[in-house]
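Box 3.1 A note on notation
Throughout this textbook, protein chains are presented in two layers. The first layer is the amino acid sequence; the second is a token string describing backbone geometry. Keep the layers aligned when reading.
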Amino acid sequence: MKIAVVTLRPEDEGHLASFLKENALSPQQCWRMQNASVASHLATLEAEYHVALPDLILFPPSEEGNELATRLAWRLRGCAVCQARGFDDETRTVRKAAYGNALTATLQPQHFPLCLSVVAAPLRQHAVFPADMPVNLLTPVPVSDALPPPDVLNKSAHPLQSARVVLAAGQGAVDQAIERLAQKLKAETGFTRQRVMAGGCDAQRMLGISGQSVAPEVCLIAGASGASAFMAGVSQSQFIVAINHDPEAPVFAAADVGIVGEAEEVLEALASRVSSVS
């Protein structure tokens, strides 16, 4: 298998060399890019590919690396995988983390060239590129009619980020009641990943590793078991109230106050109390 590695910065060599050593891969050449926009790199990389025709192209662990791997694979009608943990040359399979690092997925690409951006991992000792590996210095091609850089939205603008009270609903919460009760409690609603995947919820309100991280004064967790990926998104709350019908639910271990009961009934009682004192 012919392998090419792409570096954008000097520090990329350590990550790419560690990936190569970890997976017993031998690269044939390095394409060293000068600092420029992603769009201006693409034409240069595409031209270099048609000269060298590598089967596997490795990109560094960065946003630029992810974008270049994806866009170059599309141009070459190949396949891209971002944040790859490993590659098996014999079976030609790729390993990467899935479900918030809870599982490792093994993928079987069907098209080549395969463009991989590697995951940022601890550097292996003495991991360096082969001393005799050719290094091609590639000059980016200016793109006059490219799209302007995207506007990066300020994540803090989302209402969840400034909410004093957050009502986090899981699978055990009653859908129809959540929004009504949130209004009574003067809370912003958030949802577990499982609840979002079930449909009917705003995906932008997902809490946890794969979604938003919040830090309200009070976080009401209703009907969520307390999976670690979800709790990472609410752990900065000043006060956590957990509501679950299962007294053994893990969520109670992280709560300041735990209430065993049906989510809707408990929230109705809390909402009534809030209304009476406001």
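The longest strand covers residues 79-88. The chain has two domains: 3-138, 155-277.
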